[in-house]
User: Fold these one by one.
Assistant:
Number 1:
Amino acid sequence: MKVIPHDPGKAEHVSTEGARGVRLTSLISENEGADNFAMRLFDVEPGGHTPLHEHAWEHEVFIVSGSGELRGKTVMPFAAGDAVFVEPGEVHQFANTGAEVLRFICCVPMIQE
Amino acid sequence: MKVIPHDPGKAEHVSTEGARGVRLTSLISENEGADNFAMRLFDVEPGGHTPLHEHAWEHEVFIVSGSGELRGKTVMPFAAGDAVFVEPGEVHQFANTGAEVLRFICCVPMIQE
């Protein structure tokens, strides 16, 4: 077992087309010995958003701080303490519509790789 | 896709032997359509702890607020913003050694069921 300390220096700018003001920190992956799913931390600046896209795997998300909108076929607001489930194949985007940084945990299955 | 709103009323007291002052809220499970892994929220009161136990599946944890100790073969402190990875078969316990409620996200594979 291991503690992975909070380390802002590990955050990487997300340069994927359609992403704006997004940083990703890998927390738990195969590098830590995980076989089934990975845990990542996202920070989205005010006005920023993840790409509006879809893919074959699900997202399990927990909003740590800030607030925003889940955009796809519909638009749903979310705030700190909420969870978000995106099923495989659903178009989705996480947008920061608040005044502070939006921080969330996003877990994905290894099946994607 | 769906937003699962924060709802303190959904928290359930954990009565497992060895647990003290622990409440569990299921956030994402098969009920939400998840097939691969589940996301749960834990609240541990000051002085409280999860059972000291082991099992055949891993834990992927993110500390939302508060601080404490990861106890097993060794003892490791953790605080808000840290992640914790417990491999299958490792003895482990999450203890709240701080003055405020310890809140963490814990994801587990469905394989356990």
Note: The beta strands of chain B are 2-4, 12-13, 20-28, 37-49, 59-65, 67-71, 75-79, 83-86, 93-96, 102-109.
Number 2:
Amino acid sequence: MNGARAVLQTLVDAGVDTCFMNPGTSEMHFVAALDDVPAMRSTLALFEGVATGAADGYARMARRPAATLLHLGPGLGNGVANLHNARRAASPVVNIVGDHAQTHHRYDAPLESDIETVARNVSRFVRRATQPATVGIDVADTIAASQGPPGQVATLVLPADVSWSEGAAPAIAPPPRAATVPAPHTIAEITAALRSGTPCALLVGGSGCAGRALTLASAVAESTGARLLAETFPARLERGAGRPPVERLAYLAELAVSQLDGLAHLVLVGARSPVSFFAYPGKPSDLVPAGCHVHHLGDETTDVEAALDILAGELGVTEQSCRHQQHEVPGLPDGALTAQSLAVVLGALLPEGAIVSDEGNTLGLFAPGATACSPPHDWLCLAGGAIGQGLPVAVGAATACPDRPVIAFEADGSALYTLQSWWTMARSGLDVTTVVLRNGSYAVLNMELQRVGAHAGGPAAKRMLDLTDPDLDFVALAAGMGVPGEKVDTADGFAVALRRALAAPGPRVIEAIVPSLV
Amino acid sequence: MNGARAVLQTLVDAGVDTCFMNPGTSEMHFVAALDDVPAMRSTLALFEGVATGAADGYARMARRPAATLLHLGPGLGNGVANLHNARRAASPVVNIVGDHAQTHHRYDAPLESDIETVARNVSRFVRRATQPATVGIDVADTIAASQGPPGQVATLVLPADVSWSEGAAPAIAPPPRAATVPAPHTIAEITAALRSGTPCALLVGGSGCAGRALTLASAVAESTGARLLAETFPARLERGAGRPPVERLAYLAELAVSQLDGLAHLVLVGARSPVSFFAYPGKPSDLVPAGCHVHHLGDETTDVEAALDILAGELGVTEQSCRHQQHEVPGLPDGALTAQSLAVVLGALLPEGAIVSDEGNTLGLFAPGATACSPPHDWLCLAGGAIGQGLPVAVGAATACPDRPVIAFEADGSALYTLQSWWTMARSGLDVTTVVLRNGSYAVLNMELQRVGAHAGGPAAKRMLDLTDPDLDFVALAAGMGVPGEKVDTADGFAVALRRALAAPGPRVIEAIVPSLV
């Protein structure tokens, strides 16, 4: 068989049976081989950032990697922003970048560029396939590398001649490396801290934000009187009724500082030590209060559930001590649509098992609070801070979980980076409701303009943060991509539209016109 | 003054008075300083690829750099594909990438990444500003580097604290390096070749495709009996009635080989030696016929006009020998809209001084031929082969030349990468008519699927090259971005729409429904 077919067969044999792609000429043998390996489910994206963000969303929900297929350095470049988010989410992604045939490099043809430089920005593992005889092994190693731990973007550069040449064979991916568990002295130190009678908090992140790990973290916190916090932007937080309530650290450093104020011990459970998103003149980047001891129960390479099991055993804590969020559905508001009333409607109507891809930015501020007591659901955040993630992640989540409703909660400015996602949703019939939060501005930057200490900004500055003149029409944009949509500007109108969208199969867009908070 | 203001002042003092931007928090002081340096004209893009492609288009027309302003590694990533095209076009671009404050790096905040790795893909010159006292010099050096020769993407990484700190001062950009001229023995060798009586051709590229250089190249060719060819995708080709007729090398290697067949001497005039765009199994990448001697009159670092002056002097040739294309306007066709009839309408209606940003791909095949005798105009090609260039380059060209009509001749698949360009056209009132050539497929890939020797492709493969299911509606997409549009599917309908669009100020979109050629 040729190299391309061996690549595909190695992928599906390892369970990597989903590929989000935007191919070009150098990937035509890969594309041609799709019909020979029907177990591979391929999804076309009209822009690479959709493909890479979808692979991230898929990994967050399926807990295993999808593949991407990208075209040379420029195609990888277009995908880098969402690969950055995937890297920060510790999502496993098998990132396949087609390249010129190896004999072609020395001619420096127009599309020639140094692919590896770009790949290194997002991938600690970068491999270049060189011959069909070994390409199966290259793919197998890439899959294993992607799974870590920690999960990562592993990049395989695949020259066209390796794809088209015969003499290849599939290979079996080696098992992922074992996750670590904390040393006994770490457990002892954390146990002592939690029993010290001083103010303590557990800060969960990564795999600590879901499943039994989260249950155990809640039980430990509840039993010891510690507070349970989550990192600011978890890749996936399981929450809602019946699950442990968790308070997320605020994006605004000022607020996060007050959340952490007075702590004597902060125990990191799959999370990093909290730092401010950006630096501000004269303000510290490190958010840990002076005198607070930071303890590392586990990081991205740790089996966080096992670590919590050991800690709980040492403390004599069982899962039964876990807190459970009550189910409580707010009444539907009416009147003007505001960030608050919109969040209440979302909380009232959020269906059980929903997946929320949250890139609501400033207008999304109230949504986590308003949905805390909704039926159990998953909340996917902007892990790496590179906007344009929300819609692609929704594509990937819906592909991984075709039976669950997905809601993309999307700020207008961010939506515009990867709008092509809507077309892929329509083609694949993905059940994604996009709520575009339209305030006609990069509102977060209006706020940041002041926070960084820049003077308020004159008309030239303000125009760079303004998304009116002309107004954007997201219903028209959705229609252009083959997705039905409607506009709402009242709370009851939003409720009607959201009910309708959730009841209908396939994608829908609701353009919610909401005044800015800032 | 603070660093940001010194950056802006240094730019405008050097004539870099246009900045295409998509800023974030780390660039807020730069944005705030716009009101203090009113000579800087700033243009907001809703996606970084629009900003970088616009800077390329601006440089091609203005013959001087614009600046970009991008946000950290992910923002640069989003801009890389069009920076790749700018690099291949040898366009000078002052690429400013904001970064975290220097004190913030060690905290590895969510948006932290290795910006330089990405920058190296497109920039030989990468500088990191470190303090306000020297940031003016950093900017001045970046401007000088961008101007080459050759023109290039020069990247300055600008930490937020350098922007916000006081103690900065503007600096004066050093003059660009002098361009080279060929050595006497090169002139002698080329003179001998052109006088040898064997089949010769001049292949113009880069700055050889415009102005007096092109006139001289035509005169030399005409006087010596050599053929005059141009590279496949010139960054800017001046053509039309009254200008020298030039035959461009074909994209398809098979056709280019037949164009070059039988040549004994090929003289490169600002062009590279011709190679195939991609490699194909069993076919050579080098398109120069066996036995043909390749001579280098000049490359991207050469003063091509001076080199041609010397050569013409040696040959005793004057500008008067230059050929001039006759003005000849075809009659308007009617009937079905096809790639051919669409090209004829374009040829009939192309206004004098038009700038055509050509990303028509397969459906654009007949446009150069049909416009060869139209009034004089400029033709901007996909220099680096990374699709998604056409609309942003049109933004930049229209910004540089506000009094000239711009036509973006745009394939449907390519348009979808950087559709956000339309919003910037609307905001800036740019007189750009976009003709979207809609055939509902990545037609070039359908062709390449067969050319690379991949079997014809089954349904799974073909679905990855198909842009229907759902159909895209470009008139709706344009409306969503604030640009009026209409759909046409007949030749006379297209003529009416094109006339209307050219007569109206500001941007318009014509969705031309045209059957695929392949």
Note: Chain B has three domains: 3-164, 184-321, 339-513.
Number 3:
Amino acid sequence: MTTELRSDCPIAAALEVFGDRWSLLVLRDIVFGDRRHFRQLEREMKEKIAPNILVDRLRKLVDAGLLTKQDRGPGRTAVYSLTEAGISIVPVLVTVGGWGARYGGIPAEVQGPPQELEASGPEHWEELMAELRERHLGGGAQRAAARSTR
Amino acid sequence: MTTELRSDCPIAAALEVFGDRWSLLVLRDIVFGDRRHFRQLEREMKEKIAPNILVDRLRKLVDAGLLTKQDRGPGRTAVYSLTEAGISIVPVLVTVGGWGARYGGIPAEVQGPPQELEASGPEHWEELMAELRERHLGGGAQRAAARSTR
């Protein structure tokens, strides 16, 4: 962690890492949208993140240990993977999304993964987290890392 | 809601309301610290919020429907109360605090209400929310409101 703690409160400590307007949206698109490349994240984010802000947030999330970046050599785009700390953001995304669905002025007919997960309870959050571990920490991620270090 | 939606995503909608560096800390101190007055919130926040930022955040949280402000007449300090939307922030505080306790660089011996609640599961979050309803929406809040409108 490179962030400076304002207090010993775990809520404040967490907000130092992802308590800005964009970090959770970047993590959302990786978790629920399986976007792993810079261009995908930039082009497909509904809220239209500016490229320089995306560069900054990805670097901060790597520095804070929520993402790893695998460079795959010339001409190949780098791959971002969630770490265990990044995967552990799922309950935050689910509870934030659950609040937004009820109180954020979202039309009732618009339902997405966070609302469904919130309704189905923590044991289903765990299933998503297990799936993310396989995708980001499992075989696929290890093969990508092996390619980038040989 | 007076905020402008950047997308129909409930996570983005929620972050429009409380996704800045201070709003969740203000709500934390009301939820876990039972601070109901401006001076209490200002003086007792561990992270030392600037008075003008606190004024701004309290107004935004009232505008967004998470808090109500009861003016009690000349010489008496106003009382802030959580609404149902404000009480519904509890799962967010608990999951954010749980993440921060594990990954935010907090010493292991520092344990607070969010970590204990996260470990004990959603049914205990509900107990806290029921208690907050009684304290903020129940008899006490109604008496304060009656005083302020007569």
Note: Residues 94 and 118 of chain A are 6 Å apart (CA to CA).
